[in-house]
Amino acid sequence: MLRKMRKTTGAQASSLAMSVASTRKRAHFIFKLKAIATLFRAIALIASGDACAPVHCVTAVTKNDQRRFFIFLLFVIMFSACRSSEQATQSEVLPTNEESFQVSTPNINLAKPLEISNKPEDVALAQKIDETIEKSEFANARWGVFVVSLQDGRVLAARDAQKLFTPASVQKLLTSVVALDKLGADFRWQTKVFALNKIENGVLDGDLILYGQGAPDLSDEGIENLANQLKAKGLQKIKGNIIGDESFFTGDNFGDGWAWNELQWYYGAEASALSINRNEVNLNLQNGKPTASTILMQVSGEVKPNQNSEIESIGVKREFGENRVYVWGEGKNLDVRVAMQNPALWAAKIFKEALQKKGIAVEGDAKAADWKTENKLDVATSTELVTVESQTLAEIVRKMNKDSVNLYAELILRTLGKKFGAEAPDENPKAQKTRGDDLAGTSVIKKWLTENGVTFQETEAIRDGSGLSRLNFVTPETIGRALIAAAQMKAAETFKNSLPIAGTDGTLRGRLGNVRGKILAKTGSITYINSLAGYAKNERETFAFVILCNNETRKADSSILIDELATSLANH
Q: How far is residue 234's CA from residue 360's CA, in Å, rounded to a whole number?
């Protein structure tokens, strides 16, 4: 909770971060033109004898020699200036070393209320943020801001900091913090292959089960690895089916509160325990015909050439619950990603093909099983043949936060629910008996936040791990306190390194270039919502900050104003 010491709260705005890099390039280009123009004017003046030259420096040469010397000298000076300008531009776009941004462990007792600062400079900063928001074109939106110093725990800004907001992908911060602390940065998922019978004389009499346990990064390469291991074991023939089994997780594969029309896109891919290739397929055009990166996605339709217009308008529709896509419209360029329905079956088909390429005969078909089907795997009565491991949780969290990968967050959530759900009972005893690993995971997150001083309120709600849900409602202060807790935990450095760097990488690659390397933050964006939360540093201290914008229906992008507010912290 906040202990109020003054009424007005907010944050100061600084220069806009939008298009800073391109503005600098234009400025350097203009500088070069001016330098060249100056050079030619100087040459003309010297050639005509009108330019003042320090003849005392070259006393043993003729007047013509002097002119030639100073023409050469001016050219060298101007060329050096232009070259220095170009080098400066190049140096500005080099990636910032993550190690240069140090988030020292804060000595803040989260069990005590955080006090709002009454320092004049902090009060001015808070008032400026309020003024900047109220005078902007986004004033009618709902804004939540929370800024706290990691140096002494004083709160610099708290605009509606204890009111509920939908955080969008900033939700991933909470998922990351809890997962790193409870699972550990070195945690790895395993994907295993089981059989009901043993391999005898190169023959497996029965089904071969590809058993997923939630690995976020399983790909064709991992499937190839499994096939190679089976080949090395002497497997030559399978008298049965190849079953992709996703029964490890119970509950829904989609997040609670996801919009149905977002499920066709890659960011709405279902969180299967047996996920493969991020459960997404690329769509492109070839001579007006739509094509998919796998034949398992059926594609139809036609895109006609533009008719006397430069505007391209192409529609994409994947049938709900089906791997069929229809494409139509006018244009010549298409590069989109759609979600693959039933990824466990897709993985089984990829596995079957990989086995056959290794010369292993498969008599049966590729099939899928989940926690509701009768033919799901019983690990206790099955034989484990081979396994592959995922990357570490640290690497997965890094990719998740840098590029805002929803699937990774949802699989992490279900992993938390699977492993620790029994420790976090549901508030509703009836729901406790029937809930899946997805909702159990949200209970684990809420329990951790409460136990670690984040003061998660009863009115707040967490319904998924990625932030795509419209049913997530948290306060800016809760997220800000979680950032403090993250900086105090064992995996603090891993968490910090997972965040996008301003103007450098991830979803901040093209943003906040004017404060490059001074802000590490997770972005968030779904329809009518934009958000940003993380750490910002100035010359004296580091802040944890949260900026949430809800109910913004204007065509303009409110992230412009969010970046302006964030910039003010780095310049405070």
A: 9
